[in-house]
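chain below, 96 aa
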Amino acid sequence: MKAPAAVYSIWCAGLVLTLVVLVPLAVYLLHRTWRTARSIQRYAAETLAAARGVAHNTARLPALDDTIIVAGDVLAGAGAVAQKLDTLAGALEERA
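prediction:
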């Protein structure tokens, strides 16, 4: 039994529609998705580099705490030296 001509016409129209519209649309959307994925990879790499810089710079913060402790010790020592110098200056003034 032979299929009616309308079946062949509908089949050809569907095939042409698929080849002319749907395949290029699918290729365009896949390309756009690929470009977006590449952009996300680039942004992620830039973010990782920035995060490494932040981690590198903040790694020195504990050293600043140590510096503050040492500065306090130096200040206490300088105060003791200043007191001894005042005592010495007072003694030299009494002699003069």
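The radius of gyration is 41 Å. The chain has two domains: 1-59, 60-96.
thats it, cya
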